[in-house]
Specification:
The chain is of the alpha/beta class. The protein has 15 helices and 7 strands. Among the domains are: about 160 residues, Rossmann fold (3-Layer(aba) Sandwich); about 60 residues. The two termini are about 30 Å apart. This is ATPase.
């Protein structure tokens, strides 16, 4: 890809959460501090919420990567809509607990015996539940029941819940009072502000061993902030595409003109739609009238939008073809150099 062109040791804006690229904004640092505090306490629940793409999973990975206490045995669940029984099965699987029997009682007994065994070794269990907003209220309650496993008045397992804002609604329900009383800290992540976006981008570039300072113009960071709204995942997607565009066009600097051009190409990805909802609503609310001037205009508008989409798709394919051609030429040059060096050695 573009790594060698810009001198990166690796792609700096990958989507996969990587603790090495963790950027401690004020909100993220506070959330991480709460997680660490909860870990030190060894009991209760920690709840971290935030919009999609704000870095909840990255925080969890960062915490796991930096756990210095060898006596903490951690497991991470990425949940879907699990029933309480399915949750227990997943907990047993992640901690590699052997369960004899299929009843809920069998699973609970196996988990409890595992936790007691850890306690006898001077260890304790940490369960990190990601995407916790997908859990039904009764499954969240099952997590609370697991926290009742104790020995000598010390909890045997601790849970961290990471989820989108819907998780707040679940926990705030009247019948979740007992669960709320077990929460010892909570934090809500927000998108990055303009200054943090600049720091975030420069931090990830530095992690990829990029040493120059002029890759982005001074006003580029402000525009990237406006296009991505400061959401880290959108920043990763957008800047990754900017760098690919820069590589294809052989650019050494990414300026506002480039950013606007790429943003236009990526408008569907950055906004999440092409106004398909409003188009669909128009179709439902306006009956087809063959002789209606208004209907003819609607059809023309739809056709124009389809034309724009097709044109954008064609442009993207042309760019990708150019990229492949350029990559093949680059590989061909590298192969020729290797063959030349091999001949000289002989």
């Amino acid at each position: 890809m573009y790594e060698s062109y810009y001198g990166f040791s690796e792609r700096p804006f990958q989507l996969s959460p990587d603790p090495r690229f963790f950027f401690a904004s004020s909100h993220h640092q506070r959330a991480l501090s709460y997680l660490q505090y909860g870990l030190d306490q060894g009991e209760g629940f920690i709840v971290i919420t935030g919009p999609v793409g704000t870095g909840k999973t990255t925080i969890a990975r960062n915490l796991l990567a930096n756990i210095a206490d060898e006596n903490i045995v951690a497991a991470q669940l990425v949940t879907t809509n699990l029933s309480p029984d399915e949750l227990l099965e997943l907990v047993a699987a992640e901690f590699k607990i052997t369960v004899t029997g299929n009843s809920k009682a069998d699973k609970l007994q196996a988990i409890e015996q595992f936790l007691i065994g850890l306690n006898k070794q001077g260890k304790r269990a940490l369960l990190i539940v990601d995407e916790a907003q997908n859990l039904p209220a009764e499954t969240v309650e099952e997590l609370r029941m697991l926290s009742n496993f104790q020995l000598d008045n010390k909890p045997l397992i601790q849970s961290f819940l990471l989820g989108q804002e819907e998780l707040k609604t679940i926990i705030s329900a009247p019948d979740m009072e007992q669960f709320r009383q077990r929460i010892i800290a909570s934090a809500h992540l927000k998108p990055l502000n303009e200054q943090e976006v600049k720091g975030y981008i420069n931090h990830r570039l530095a992690q990829a061993n990029y040493t120059k300072e002029d890759l982005f113009s001074d006003d580029a960071f402000q525009l990237i902030f406006e296009k991505t709204l400061g959401v880290p995942r959108k920043i990763n997607i957008f800047v990754d595409r900017l760098l690919l565009f820069g590589f294809l066009e052989e650019l050494s600097n990414i300026n506002c003109k480039v950013i606007n051009e790429v943003a236009q190409e990526m408008s569907e990805e950055l906004t999440g739609s092409l106004n398909s909802t409003s188009l669909e609503n128009n179709r439902k609310s306006q009956p087809l009238l063959p002789n209606s001037t208004e209907n003819v205009e609607n059809i023309k508008n739809v056709l124009r939008e389809v034309e724009e989409i097709l044109e954008g798709s064609i442009q993207q394919k042309v760019k990708m073809t150019r990229y492949i051609d350029k990559l093949l030429k680059q590989k061909s040059r590298e192969l020729a150099e290797l063959q030349s060096n091999s001949t000289e050695d002989k």
